[in-house]
Specification:
There is one protein chain. By secondary structure, this protein is α/β, with parallel strands linked by helices. The protein folds into 3 domains: about 15-210 and about 225-260, NADP-dependent oxidoreductase domain (TIM Barrel, Alpha-Beta Barrel), CATH 3.20.20.100; about 290-450, Rossmann fold; about 460-585, HAD superfamily/HAD-like (Rossmann fold), CATH 3.40.50.1000. The protein contains 25 helices and 22 strands. Helix 5 (about 150-160) links the parallel strand 7 and strand 8.
Length: about 600
Amino acid sequence: MTPRAPVGRVERALGCMRFETEAAAHEVVGAALEAGVTLLDTANVYGPDDGVFGVNERWLARALDAWSGPRPRVATKGGLTRPGGRWVPDGRAKAIRQACEGSLDALGVETIDLYLLHAPDPRVSWKTTCRALAKLKADGLVARLGLCNVSVAQLREARAHMDVDAVQIGLSPFEESGLRGGVPRYCLDEGIALLAHSPLGGPKRAAKIGRDRALGALAEARGVSPWAMTLAWLRDLGATPLPGCTRPETARDALAPLSLDDGAREALDARFPLGARLRCPPTPPRDGGQGEVVLLMGIPGAGKSTHARALVEAGYARLNRDATGGTLKALHGRLGALLSTLTNTGPRRVVLDNTYATRALRDQVLEIAWKHDLPVRCVLVDTALEDAQVNACVRMIERTGRLLEPDEMKRAGKDDPNLFDPRVQLRYRAAFEPPTEDEGFSALERRAFERAPWGGDGEAVIVSVESFASFEGEAVTLAPERAARLREEPRTLCATGWAPKASPEAVARRVARLEAGLGRDLDARFCRHAAGPPICWCRKPLPGLGVALILEHALDPARCLWVGTSAADRGIASRLGVPYVDAAAYFDPG
């Protein structure tokens, strides 16, 4: 296997985020300039005061004005805000333009050398953001464009709308996700400059490098620090590290010219094998009939277990954290051990079912399987979020008999990972990177989710409480004509509503008054949780109350009717397969 040579220019660079005062900025940048720095990295949001833009950029500009030597290039970033100290992306076209113009003013230049988007904004179309960046270059405001903190899929899509000259991601020897995520390899293959922020692991992890014996021995033999050796290793891979130095002496150390000889390169690659894989990408094994590993992935609640059982029946060994517990790292350790024990027992066929949202997580499975000369087939159970939410509620009720309260889910989830709150699925969707064959899979299959029949045959009308009743404290007032319509309803009568912060006893009294006013049985369910992030399954538009009614009354959704007053009601009915009618049409059909 021929090692891949680094592509593109590798800079001697300095990250400027951590300056706390202008005096410190001048001292550190001055030392870096004397040491031959060629790239300075900043951003409009860097500075000691949240919400004040351009501070770090102005410090940097004044430090450069005081320098009479060769001027390094400056990279700055936009597309991020700092409300209340939080990092919040803003990828709107107008915001991108304003941020760039502000950086031009702060840096005192007519054209920015390299302008990067700080982070994708999930609330804004990726195409919109990328086109806004492309317009900056077309209008001459920036010379080159780049992206930060992106996935391979986002990078590919971006290149359809803009030039991508550089990509900045977190990359360090002790942070696996950056090396496994595919972006470094993509950049090297495509000739895109690769910038590594937090190259020493960040302030809290940098000390680990100083304690590493292998690094220490190599560094001592060459008369440099272990941190300088680490940065040299990253440059040798083809990346430009951006060490965030806060003292002149550390800046000089980080920028010291240091090239790796063959011995140092071999030793460092042995210490950090993921770097060796980046330098010399492995060749996936071919399917020689000796078995395979099936990576079964999908959103929590996708229905992966159904597909896994089919493979087990076909003779596959199954590894799953639901059964074994522990961490994903421990599960992968068991995979390696299992493949070793199966070596002399015929074809080795194993299925792992887990969420595997990111390319970096999937790469761990590929690495282990390839060490045992086995291909990996990826099967994505392609379940929509709405269907997965229903599945999560069904599973919870089947296992516990009811929808759990938020604090109960926290406790139960420690023993059973299938008992989780809605935010788990939302986090998965936010992190999800669609699998692609170029990750190294022998095959990539997508299985559409199909819901099995619910199994019941009951009929019911499920009504939004707000459509026929109003509440003032403990008092319940029914709309007379609508109450009369519900009294005549021949089917089982159910209702759903919202009573934020009400006690269980208060809800029980409310239901009793509703039944008394209607003069008939009513199964009314209320969500008692406040507005805000979804911490329960019962607040609309989540389907928990509807799922509970279907299961407890053995209903056939197709034979029921959902009477609602909102888009949330319509959405719940749709995902449960219940015909929907607006309350006005139900109560006044004429």
